[in-house]
Amino acid sequence: MQVVYFVNSGSEANDVAIMLARLHTKNFDIVSFRNSYHGASMGAMGLTALSSWRFNVPTAHGVHHAMNPDVYRGLWGGSKCRDSPVQTSRECSCSEGHCKASEMYYGQLEEVFKYSLPRGKVAGLFAESIQGIGGTVQFPKGFLKKAYELVKINGGVCIADEVQTGFGRTGEHFWGFQMHDVKPDIVTMAKGIGNGFPLGAVATTPEIAESFTQALHFNTFGGNPIALAVGSAVLQVIEEEETQKRSAEVGSYLLKKLEKLRDEFDCVGDVRGKGLMIGVELVSNKETRAPLPAKSFTDIWEDCKDMGLLLGRGGLYANVSFFFITTSH
């Protein structure tokens, strides 16, 4: 990828990616996954399939939400299905190198192409490498690679939403999509690129970027000198302080510690993630996976804050904790 278009946020980046996909392919329909979050603008909200993040207003048309390939809460999945130091406690009949859950979820995606898209043609597929706001949900092994192949066959482009997973957050790779062994056509990014400063970007190929020459497109503050200076400084710190390496080391340590808590406490249903993109799903019943009520989660959240630990929260039921910590914690 040789072309970068700078914006101010992840929502803007995904809006640009929608337009590029449609202009380049001359197709209209977009596919994303249930439980995904891609932003709060009218366009990005259409991609988003989390009811807690959608308002009762018109959003982007022509978006289809495929079944979410969640190996913990979904129809299929088990203890060998995801690329993580910690696996779900669900039983699994998969063999090494062959994930049955991946095949079943892929079959559901094929159904969307077969029944919902005009002649099967698609403009693009949006996918987070790990679903962030949705609760740090990881796809089963091999699923995204097969999904990308399906999109290519049907005339579309593949868009990697790296707003949360990019810049070494997942530890093993700089970009989250690399863990899936895929090559997207468009990559959207924000958050980590500016370390809190309003900065986002869309990276793509010259061929796809050429689509923007059909008319004028302008962003008043996108790519302003101060924002780019901040982004450059962030990249320097990431390299000099080896934050990606630290994410891998601290993340693996933390995941193993959290796995022990999952096995010890009935309220911890699942622990998952890569690097320092980690989620802990709290439940009221481990067998049924019934989510912990929001009020109970809020009480735990406040107790942690009083003890000096700040947690994020996500998931459809707002019962998944996010961790941003070091081994000293």
UniProtKB/TrEMBL annotation:
**Listed GO biological process terms:** glyoxylate catabolic process; L-alanine catabolic process, by transamination
Membrane-spanning residues: none
Q: Which UniProt keywords apply?
A: Aminotransferase, Mitochondrion, Pyridoxal phosphate, Transferase, Transit peptide
Q: Name one GO cellular component term.
A: mitochondrion
Enzyme class, spelled out: transferase
Localisation per UniProt entry? Mitochondrion
Q: Which reaction does it catalyse?
A: L-ornithine + glyoxylate = 5-amino-2-oxopentanoate + glycine; L-ornithine + pyruvate = 5-amino-2-oxopentanoate + L-alanine; N(omega),N('omega)-dimethyl-L-arginine + glyoxylate = 5-(3,3'-dimethylguanidino)-2-oxopentanoate + glycine; N(omega),N(omega)-dimethyl-L-arginine + pyruvate = 5-(3,3-dimethylguanidino)-2-oxopentanoate + L-alanine
Under Pfam families, the record lists: Aminotran_3
Q: What is its main location?
A: mitochondrion
| Protein family per UniProt | Belongs to the class-III pyridoxal-phosphate-dependent aminotransferase family.
How would you summarize the oligomeric state and partners of this protein?
Answer: Homotetramer.
What is the name listed in the Swiss-Prot or TrEMBL entry for this protein? Alanine--glyoxylate aminotransferase 2, mitochondrial
